[in-house]
Amino acid sequence: xxxxxxxxxxxxxxxxxxxxxxxxxxxxxxxxxxxxxxxxxxxxxxxxxxxxxxxxxxxxxxxxxxxxxxxxxxxxxxxxxxxxxxxxxxxxxxxxxxxxxxxxxxxxxxxxxxxxxxxxxxxxxxx
Length: 127
What we know:
Shape: globular
Mean pLDDT: 90
Number of helices: 2
Structural class: alpha+beta
Distance between the termini: 39 Å
Strand content: 15-25%
Low-confidence stretches: none
Number of strands: 5
Order of helices and strands: HHEEEEE
Strand order of the largest sheet: 1-3-2
Oligomer: single chain
């Protein structure tokens, strides 16, 4: 768990960036990203995931754009690591929560579900 959003998209291979950013940027390549404080961390994480086949969950806040995805790619295959999942929490002004289920009998081990707090819904109407 971290507070910071590491920005895994900055480390994607060109083909993944093209698929994701293409609808927004057209055929042009996304701008290059300068080195940052997370480079060594992400490289070490990628290296470990290349040889580790059990589920790994990475939870963070920071940008608070709630999402559950698989944002890290193998440098060997240019495909996402299927055993790595990122969960970004809700945050102000969308204050809700994420249900985490851990089931050791499930090969995926972790299940995440965004839970909406009715009183915090932007179009919530009081009676």
